Amino acid sequence: xxxxxxxxxxxxxxxxxFVGGKGGVGKTSxxxxxxxxxxxxxxxxxxxxxDPAHSLSDSLETPIYSYxxxxxxxxxxxxxxxxxxxxxxxxxxEARKAAGMEMPFGLDAIGDVMDIAGSSPGADEAAAFEVFxxxxxxNDYDVVVFDTAPTGHTLRLLSFPExxxxxxxxxMKIKAKLGAAASKLKSIIPFIDADENSQSAAELxxxxxxxxxxxxVLSDPDRTTFKMVIIPEEMSIYESERALEALEKYDITCxxxxxxxxxxxxSDCDFCHSRHKLQQKRLALIxxxxxxxxxxxxxxxxxxxxxxxxxxNFAHILYDGKDNDEIETNVIQL
Length: 334
Description:
Layout: E1 15-20, H1 27-40, E2 45-49, H2 56-60, E3 69-72, E4 75-79, H3 82-98, H4 110-119, H5 123-136, E5 143-147, H6 151-186, H7 198-218, E6 224-230, H8 234-249, E7 253-262, H9 270-289, E8 294-299, H10 308-320, H11 324-327
Parallel strand pairs: 1-5, 1-6, 2-4, 2-5, 6-7, 7-8
Antiparallel strand pairs: 3-4
Helix pairs in contact: 1-10, 3-4, 3-5, 6-7, 6-8
């Protein structure tokens, strides 16, 4: 099976591809190359960076913002910005307050809301997760490619549906109890309205529905898959092995491993030959550690893989199986 055979499409439903791995292994290059290749296949593609330290704009050499930004035909980019997401959330709350609408969760002062939201741990992550969730529950594109942060941050993001689902569930139970208490007190204290929180309760229900929808998409192997990028070094291999175990807990399917920066065997270079021999041992370890994955190799290039032309060349090696003769001039030569 070729690596491109791992990418499947369902009619009228978006396909989601997560590209992840240890820091410094080339995740952004792989995800950018993948998105460019998909756009070349005439698939309407969105590439999303979930890494707070964005490098997507640098890789593609074009400005990308916190909204779907046109890059080229069939390709759009978006960099999730937690600060921008928080600012948008605050603007929404202020608009609600100005319109005399009830604040979410029964809080009736904008200052109180923002004090709580701004000081609670992970508030910026929660706001960014809302953007992530909106992407996961829409069908505006044929395929969405996620350029993720290093492993730990990505696993935290992917655990957010469970965390948020539990939190929203707790809030709904609290509201149910408050509603029952308000109904009993209404006959004693006339100004208490048992229905005053109905709007925010409905919002909680809608949030829970969206979270469940995102969870269902994430756990659907026909729509969502994870591609692990590693380099032939022990630390990268072992961290990726642990990450795959964690992904299983979230019911996320990893079906492919991309081994980046594979050194060619250059006989007249002692350093290159030694590195090649060491990497061959690590490649054997990769085959042992990931027997159920489709494994693809991408060579180490003499130039930085940056800019759309070089990224597309990278993609054709990965997905179209260009042989070494076709890429010889690009492979590192010392």
